[in-house]
Amino acid sequence: MTYFRKNIEAMAGYVPGEQPEAGQRVVKLNQNENPYPPSPAVVEAMKAFDAGGLRLYPDPMATALCKAAGEVLGVPSEWILPGDGSDDLIMMLARAAAGPGRPIAYPTPTFPFYRTQGQIEGAELVEVPAAEDFSLPIGRLAEVNAALTFVCSPNSPTGAVADADALAELAGRLSGILVIDEAYVDFADADALSVVGRCDNVIVLRTLSKGYCLAGLRLGFGIARPPLLEGLVKTKAIYNVGALPAALGAAAMRDRAYHAECVARIRSERARLAAALEARGFVVWPSGGNFLMVTVPGGDGRGALEALKARNVLVRYFQQDRLLDKLRISVGRPVDTDALLAALDDAGVGNTP
Amino acid sequence: MTYFRKNIEAMAGYVPGEQPEAGQRVVKLNQNENPYPPSPAVVEAMKAFDAGGLRLYPDPMATALCKAAGEVLGVPSEWILPGDGSDDLIMMLARAAAGPGRPIAYPTPTFPFYRTQGQIEGAELVEVPAAEDFSLPIGRLAEVNAALTFVCSPNSPTGAVADADALAELAGRLSGILVIDEAYVDFADADALSVVGRCDNVIVLRTLSKGYCLAGLRLGFGIARPPLLEGLVKTKAIYNVGALPAALGAAAMRDRAYHAECVARIRSERARLAAALEARGFVVWPSGGNFLMVTVPGGDGRGALEALKARNVLVRYFQQDRLLDKLRISVGRPVDTDALLAALDDAGVGNTP
């Protein structure tokens, strides 16, 4: 007997994006982090927080956080299941619904953590390639009809957004669960939250990591109708969300003005970055996220990655089919865009405009 | 097709201990929480924490926390895997090592979350009853030889502590993993950490919830030799521990004087509580934890629970074999003990001394 299950022994673990050494000065555009600090309301909530209360277990359902999220999204808080980041929800879903004889399907390329979760559960992985324009292959996913179907929208790394009506149609054709992972939706023109109201097999995932500048806090949640959540909660850790993150997350969500301003800045900078890269000969794929997938002039994605890294600019490159000539670049502040463009020009990647 | 796996559909979820309504004044001795606030160093660390940095993902391995833990425990920090509470480690272990054909074994009665995790994985559950004196059935667990064996020591709800040499012998006879869950060990006379150095199939779990007064923060970790951790980390969420809890937890662990004082107070109060209950005719079982398992005079555990609840004192009762005449009572502050004893006397549970 080996210590671990065969599928665990066989798999490689998920490899997170590179993080700079402490004190290293870099322009960090490789993990789609928000370039702005969280709302000042988070700092206020931290100051007001009673540390003495940390001796007690937190509310297992993080009701305060779910209430804030419900108000912001206009859904009953009973439709919301909190997570230690939206990763936590993805793990709960895989444990509850996938396994031998219960496949996981998802478009490719996409967030590789869905594959990792399928590997852990020993589930068949059905990878459906995105169309030539990288639009999400909704029709093909319906034909596959997996026990658990993941659609990341806006999708990482492509930026593609799936239409809500198309997702509702997909859900209607599936006999399993459809997960719409909207980690990046704050930066898109439209969301698919309404699909939850229409279909009892749909869960929408949201996170505070991107739009709320709180990747360090680990807060996410799923929105679904109560019968779906009743099954899912069985795989939840007893107290998965700490009392302090829950309080800070609720404060961040309630500061609507800050969120709107932060999102507007990033959308505006995304447009400027796209134009500047197009002027340099990059193909820029349409993106609803706080990042752009771009095809590098000349087609050497890895070369461009390394040239930028040598100039202290971190972006993301994926060593996989259809992405070898591409980079994924997070949208930062205007100074970050300037630094990226200067580094590209210095390295001679793309035309000098 | 149902949305969830058959074993998920069939199981009931874990039910956490009762929490009082907000604003309700109770003496809360039902979840083995520490009655004292966390170290002042936690408050200082929170004040000093740069909230702006929360926009970035945390260190996936929570190195700062593991370094503090390694220094305190005298083990290399590479032997430590951080968790969102020790529940998180229990879940990683179940996902990595248990499943059909790979049973989970544990003594009974014990922490019911091991059973929950086995149910989620569809693993056979081998429950080995504790001896008549509730000592842990180490020898029988060796005969079972499960893929994953859990020993909670000090055990909840019994308080029993397993001997380190006996655990090492058990590990040597197992071909699977032995998990020594030491959530309560801060309050015991001895621990079994040394077993990790002797056996490559052993992981010791620790938490900051009990001894460090931080149940609300969700911090735990596993200590094992690197080859075991290499398999286990594959089932870890990418960023399971937030940057803020990691910083506060490291500060709490480094305040050795506060920890020692806090533990000393609880051990002293545990002795006083035990004597007072014995004087009232309770049988008090030996405990290495911050709680006592007691047999109620007259044998009506549920009646005693309800009588105390009616007097705003919460304790824990387990509706299960061998525990129907018992309560588990957390050790609180001297005033909490006084309130508990007054409520017992008022309700006429036990002799008036």
Features:
homodimer, 353 residues, alpha/beta, 7-stranded mixed beta sheet, 12 strands, 38% helix, 14% strand
List the helices and strands and how they pair.
2 copies of one chain form a homodimer.
Chain A lengths: L5 H5 L16 E2 L11 H9 L14 H11 L6 E4 L2 H12 L6 E5 L4 H9 L3 E5 L8 H7 L3 E5 L11 H10 L3 E5 L12 H5 L3 E6 L12 E4 L2 H7 L10 H12 L1 H24 L3 E2 L6 E5 L5 H10 L2 E2 L11 E5 L3 H14 L6
Parallel strand pairs in A: 1-11, 3-4, 3-5, 5-6, 6-7
Antiparallel strand pairs in A: 2-8, 7-8, 9-10, 10-12
Describe the fold and architecture:
2 copies of one chain form a homodimer. Chain A is globular and about 55 Å long. The N and C termini of chain A lie far apart (62 Å). Chain A has a 7-stranded mixed sheet with strand order 2-8-7-6-5-3-4, with helices on both faces. In chain A, strands 9-10-12 form a 3-stranded antiparallel sheet. The first copy, chain A, is 38% helix and 14% strand. Chain A is an alpha/beta fold and 353 residues long. Chain A has helices spanning 6-10, 40-48, 63-73, 86-97, 113-121, 138-144, 164-173, 194-198, 226-232, 243-254, 256-279, 301-310, 334-347; strands at 27-28, 80-83, 104-108, 125-129, 148-152, 177-181, 202-207, 220-223, 283-284, 291-295, 313-314, 326-330. At the A-B interface, helix 2, helix 4, helix 5, helix 9 and helix 10 of A face helix 2, helix 4, helix 5, helix 9 and helix 10 of B.
Estimated helix fraction of chain A? 25-40%
Q: Structural class of the secondary elements of chain A?
A: alpha/beta
Shape call of chain A: globular
Largest sheet composition of chain A:
7 strands, mixed
Largest interface: A-B, 79 and 79 residues
Which regions of chain A are unreliable across 5 or more consecutive residues at pLDDT < 50? none
Query: Radius of gyration of chain A in whole Å, from Cα?
Result: 20 Å
Number of helices of chain A: 13
With strands numbered from the N-terminus, the spatial order across the biggest sheet of chain A is 2-8-7-6-5-3-4
The beta-strand count of chain A equals 12
